[in-house]
């Protein structure tokens, strides 16, 4: 059967980690839709035009080792405001969400645009300071030359672009269940999402 879980939220709120854990728990397929935009952003950094980069995206582009870098994240945020880029990536995401056996997609517009009919919609968030600390620890742990203040500023600028863009802005779906992970361990956050999915699956 088809069963789609949409998990949205801003950067470093924990949605990706939660989505992977939930997919593994239920045996669902998982798609980090942010990787699509990161891959497009990475291609633009070497001179490829954004819309062309989106239309020619390959599996190899999604497997690049540098997609989690701060520079690629910024490039992804810039290309994500382009309506033609988002349109070029729609079919891939729709097909993934409709696969048999269940699918978990995480991003910023899954519950509102990509999968408005998803059986489960979650919006995962956390305070700016908590998200910045998480992202700083992640990047510095990989050897990146970053500061906490710089990461915080980047996050806030990215949030503003995501929320203010005309194409699929970052916003919680009206029927999404909100989870604030500021004071939660990842294990507790995962448990909360699993419980919500179990409740809804019992009604399907």
What does this structure look like?
The chain is globular. Helix 1 packs across helix 10 (186-201). The protein has helices at 15-26, 33-44, 50-55, 59-62, 70-79, 83-97, 110-114, 128-141, 148-164, 186-201, and strands spanning 4-8, 29-32, 103-107, 120-125, 177-180. The chain has one domain: 3-Layer(aba) Sandwich (Rossmann fold). It is of the alpha/beta class.
Features:
54% helix, Rossmann fold, 204 residues, 12% strand
Question: What is the highest CATH level, the class?
Answer: Alpha Beta
Q: What percent of residues adopt helix (DSSP H or I)?
A: 40-55%
CATH-defined superfamily: P-loop containing nucleotide triphosphate hydrolases
Summing up helix and strand content along with how strands pair, one would put the structural category as alpha/beta
- Give the CA-based shape: globular
Radius of gyration: 16 Å
Task: Count the beta strands.
Answer: 5
Regions with pLDDT < 50 over 5+ consecutive residues? Answer: none
Instruction: Return the string of H and E elements.
Output: EHEHHHHHEHEHHEH
In short:
With 204 residues, the protein is an alpha/beta fold. The protein has one domain: P-loop containing nucleotide triphosphate hydrolases (Rossmann fold).
